[in-house]
Design brief:
The complex is a heterodimer of chains A (228) and B (619). With 228 residues, chain A is α/β, with parallel strands linked by helices. In chain A, 45% of the residues lie in helices and 16% in strands. Classes of the chains: A alpha/beta (228), B alpha+beta (619).
């Protein structure tokens, strides 16, 4: 699969740059096997709050993540961190995330954040709802810090749903693919709070629901059936 | 971010019995949780495999099938399952399947076992069987029950003025005044100062036994050192004082001024929250207008009794007594207008009024049993007029006309003894659906007025027909399966559609009636004539028809369901709404919902027992 070849090329090139620490560990850990049954894969489910959608101009304010292991969301492996940034917060985003400049200045730096992510992403599939934020920001920061892109196995819950609806030739409504509307479709509870860790947990639950439903249609769902 | 800020933590905190955990215990539990999802129709627990979790349903619903007796239970949000397997070392016995797409919070076995040791409320919740849990729920409902006399003040009892007489009144005149004013004591006063007291007892202990001259002044025999009480003292103090000193009358005095008097009877009236008082007033009433006014006080009396935490069976008994007093009075007033009946008769009531299960004004269910001397040509119009007037007057009192026309005003239910006997004969020996419906109405029958021996003669003949009639019992047992209690709550399919409010649980049809129907079959089998549901169950137990455990389970379930219904009715009355049977599940706490589910499951179990006991190979 071209996908794997592309990742293997990335790894080979990155290892030639003599990486250290968490990055080295990440690159040395084999990528998750795409032929594994989807429910037996270990996932890191991510959510970033950012100052905007442009990975070149905008900054990460906070990150939240949780893990799925053996088909269950692991609450005790969930984390939430504020991320330090030089850029002044715009009032729009402050009202959504309720995070102020003061709080952000107490957060972790970009390097520490990447080390944390590399540590937890190693050997896992990475999940996000609408990956272009999380994936693009990680890749931009990786280029800046390490001089190359990161090999990743990505799963996007929004993409899974979009493809499912396209397969069924169903029209897609304006807000239909938003996380909270999709959760409702799968009879998942309404969560009130809005922060990166709760959104990561909400996304993790949605992924389980999507895999379980897919499983009812086609017996054995593999990781490659749901990756982006 | 702290775990307490998670929405999951809030959910756990609002779920019984996790709300009884300490902050630390809850925090540890939250941190240990894993979340799982199951799509509709998929199996969650498979028998003969291992389970290592206590499951808490966050959203969705599941169904548990008991592999031994095929009984099904449903669970939904805030319900737990899986703990029974944990208690037997993880081995799963009963299959659990998702009825809807469901999200679960999984609590690891180690955390469960730890809490079973460290937290008593948690342990009680998961170790009790559902019948024990129900029993402790009933006890919990009653913990508020204390002597309400503590809360009342003597001043509250000063309804009527005592008889006051000057000291020089003669003994004879005093007796006459007491008789005419219907008083059991007279107070001897001087310028509103209390000088002494005489009670009806003194006429026995002094006047007659000592052969006193009745023209002597009352002051000669009065008690001078009168025991009095202040208006601010409690009803309980008054009662204790009376008991200790063996007196029944306490003049109420403040600053040496006589305010009135309370009697032992006043205290009794108060303690039983007006129903006795109301029944007395009904007996005293002498026109229909007064009766209508008194009947309108019934909802208030109900509220008072429920607020005082009396048990449901006693409350229903009191409300039924009021209902019977009203119908008796209505009959009496109409007999007065129509003149003496030409032949002996017995006025009978059926349904909840007969069973002493009434909680509010209900439909009329009644019949008129006439002596076999009855001749339609000669006596027909008298009884027709009587029955029409009685039904009409009851309707005015709030006991609306029976929609099924089961009333003495319908000539079908105004018949001589022979005809009633042949009715029962037909219902018992040709039990088609309509006959079974009549059976379930007319097997709960009570004579409220008239010739009791006539009524007893009917009862004896009917009981002779049922005795050892297994086929009829089998039909009644099958009939008792008609109304099934809901197995899961709060899913739309268990909620009845009715009128304005669309989603509510019909407590009468789904809980109280099935229980009443079960008790009726057991009582018929036991050959007992008692008709109150709780009485029927204990009689059936005494006759060896059911076990003590079964009797207790059913009595407890019935009591709990009745209590929930009463509390709902009182809430409605206070909001100015009708005291109906439709409980909106949102009115209930998660604890009450759990207990309700236990009660429904128990009733369902005994419906099954009933069907196995009587219907083997017959239907």
């Amino acid at each position: 699969m071209f996908w794997n070849n592309k990742n293997q090329k990335l790894i080979d090139r990155a290892l030639r740059l003599n990486p250290m620490g968490q990055l080295k560990n990440y690159l040395m850990t084999p990528l998750v096997d795409l032929n594994l049954p989807a429910l037996s894969v270990d996932y890191l489910v991510l959510d970033f709050e950012t100052t905007g959608l442009d990975d070149q101009r905008d900054h990460i304010i906070s990150i939240g993540f949780t893990e799925i292991s053996q088909g269950r969301v692991q609450l005790n492996r969930s984390q939430h961190h504020l991320v330090k940034t030089e850029k002044k917060l715009e009032s729009d985003n402050v009202s959504i995330h309720q995070i102020t400049d003061d709080e952000v200045s107490q957060g972790i730096g970009i390097k520490a954040m990447m080390n944390l992510l590399l540590q937890h992403m190693a050997g896992k599939a990475v999940v996000a709802h609408y990956q272009s934020i999380e994936y693009n920001f990680i890749q931009r920061i990786s280029e800046q810090l390490y001089g190359h892109a990161l090999p990743m196995v990505m799963v996007d819950t929004l993409q899974i749903e979009r493809r499912k609806l396209q397969r069924l030739f169903r029209p897609i409504g304006a807000n239909q693919l938003r996380l909270f509307n999709l959760r409702n479709d799968y009879n998942l509870p309404r969560y009130h709070a809005h922060n990166a860790m709760e959104d990561a947990i909400a996304t993790a639950e949605l992924l389980l629901a999507q895999i379980c439903h897919r499983q009812q249609q086609h017996k054995a769902v593999k990781l490659k059936d749901i990756t982006s | 971010m702290e775990i307490e800020q998670l929405e999951i933590h809030d959910f756990l905190q609002n779920t019984h019995p996790l709300n009884k955990l300490t902050a630390d215990e809850l925090k540890q539990l939250t941190a240990a949780i894993e979340i799982a999802y199951t799509a509709r129709g998929e199996t969650i627990l498979e028998p003969e495999t291992q389970n290592q979790w206590l499951y808490l349903i966050r959203s969705g619903a599941v169904k548990r099938t008991d592999h031994q007796d095929g009984l099904v239970a449903q669970f939904s949000s805030q319900d737990f399952f899986g703990h029974k397997a944990l208690e037997r070392g993880g081995l799963i016995k009963n299959k659990v399947v998702a009825l809807e797409d469901s999200l679960f919070y999984l609590i690891p076995n180690a955390v469960y076992q730890q809490l079973m040791i460290s937290n008593n409320d948690f342990k009680n919740y998961f170790s009790q069987q559902k019948n024990q849990r129900l029993k402790s729920a009933i006890n919990e409902l009653k913990t508020g029950q204390e002597n309400i006399l503590i809360k009342s003040r003597v001043a509250d009892f000063l309804h009527h003025q005592p008889l006051r007489i000057p000291a020089n009144t003669s003994i004879r005149k005093t007796a006459l005044m007491m008789r005419d004013s219907n008083q059991t004591a007279a107070l001897i006063t001087e310028q509103n100062r209390l000088k002494g007291i005489v009670t009806d007892r003194v006429f026995c202990t002094k006047v007659v036994t000592q052969a006193l001259d009745t023209e002597v002044a009352i002051s000669e025999i009065m008690t001078q050192d009168v025991i009095t009480i202040g208006p601010q003292q409690t009803g309980l103090e008054a009662m204790l004082l009376m008991t200790r000193l063996n007196v029944r009358h306490l003049p109420v005095v403040q600053d040496q001024k006589l305010l009135g008097m309370i009697t032992a009877t006043d205290l009794i009236h108060h303690q039983s929250h007006n129903p006795i008082y109301l029944v007395n007033q009904i007996h005293k009433a002498d026109d229909q207008k007064t009766l209508i006014q008194l009947s309108a006080q019934l909802p208030t009396a109900l509220c008072k009794m429920v607020d005082a935490d009396l048990n449901a069976n006693d409350i229903a008994y009191s409300i039924s007594s009021i209902g019977r007093a009203i119908i008796q009075k209505v009959i009496k007033l109409n007999l007065k207008k129509l003149g003496k009946a030409p032949v002996p008769f017995a006025y009978m009531v059926a349904g909840s009024l007969a069973r002493n299960d009434q909680t509010a004004h209900s439909d009329q269910d009644n019949g008129l049993l006439l002596s076999d001397e009855y001749d339609e040509q000669l006596h027909g119009s008298y009884f027709e007029q009587l029955a029409a007037a009685v039904s009409n007057d009851l309707n005015q009192c709030g006991y609306v006309l029976c929609p099924g026309d089961v009333m003495a005003s319908n000539s079908q239910w105004r018949q001589p003894l022979q005809q009633w006997v042949s009715y029962f004969n037909r219902w018992i020996n040709q039990p088609e659906p309509k006959a079974l419906m009549y059976s379930s109405i007319f097997f709960d029958l009570r004579c409220v007025y008239g010739d009791v021996s006539l009524f007893q003669s009917l009862q004896q003949q009917v009981h002779a027909m049922i005795k050892n009639n297994r086929i009829f019992l089998a039909y009644m047992a099958a009939n008792a399966q008609q109304n099934k209690p809901p197995l899961g709550l709060f899913r739309r399919f268990v909620l009845e559609s009715h009128g304005a409010e669309n989603k509510a649980l019909d407590m009468k049809k789904r809980g109280i009636m099935p229980c009443t129907d079960i008790a009726r079959v057991f009582a018929l089998d036991a050959g007992t004539e008692v008709i109150n549901t709780a009485d029927r169950l204990s009689s059936a137990e005494a006759a060896g028809i059911i076990s003590q455990e079964a009797a207790e389970d059913l009595v407890d379930s019935f009591e709990f369901l009745s209590m929930v219904r009463l509390q709902h009715q009182v809430k409605n009355i206070k909001l100015g709404k009708a005291a109906d049977n439709y409980v909106d599940p949102n009115e209930l706490s998660s604890l009450e919902r759990r207990h309700l589910k236990d009660a429904f499951e128990l009733i369902s179990t005994y419906q099954d027992v009933l069907s196995k006991k009587y219907n083997q190979g017959q239907m």
